[in-house]
Amino acid sequence: FLTASRKPCDADVVQLSGCKDEQTSADTHSSSFENPYDGPGVAGGACTNAFIELFTKHDDLSYGQILVNMQQVLKEKRYTQIPQMSTSCKVDMTSKFDMKAPLETS
User: Fold this and answer.
1) DSSP assignment string, 45-65
2) Rounded to whole angstroms, how far apart are CA atoms 40 and 27?
3) What distance in Å separates the CA atoms of residue 22 and residue 98, rounded to the nearest whole number?
4) What is the rounded distance in angstroms from the CA atom of residue 75 to the CA atom of residue 22?
5) Sign of CA dihedral 58, 61, 63, 65
6) Which of 6, 29, 66, 72 has the most CB atoms less than 10 A away?
7) Contact at 8 Å (CB) between 84 and 64?
């Protein structure tokens, strides 16, 4: 954690941001990524497409792997934005990403 929360939160919140605060998130055509949900005129965020590309190839990633791999995919595709992750509590970054299960805290 860069900054500790001042009050506890009853919710488990994980937020993936497309870039650092001082950066801009790029829009792109999904054909630039390995995205099976592509179609004519389909566009979206580069970070969102990197996320979809990862989960098209892998179904068992940790929170840390998601963040690092999204950053790597964007860097390989020559995007300068660096995705960030924020959470409502300290998270074990080696725990499996699961949208339905409670967060494993560290």
Assistant:
1) EHHHHHHHHHHHH-S--BHHH
2) 16
3) 29
4) 17
5) negative
6) 66
7) no
Q: Quick one: how far is CA 34 from the chain centroid? A: 16
**pLDDT attached to residue 98:** 82
Read off the pLDDT of residues 9-60 as tens digits, 9 standing for 90 and up: 677 888 999 999 999 999 887 667 776 665 555 667 899 889 888 988 888 9
Amino acid in the structure at residue 78: R
Cα–Cα distance measured from residue 89 to residue 106, given in angstroms and rounded to the nearest whole number: 9
Q: What is the mean pLDDT of the chain?
A: 82
Handedness of CA 46, 37, 68, 15 (dihedral sign): positive
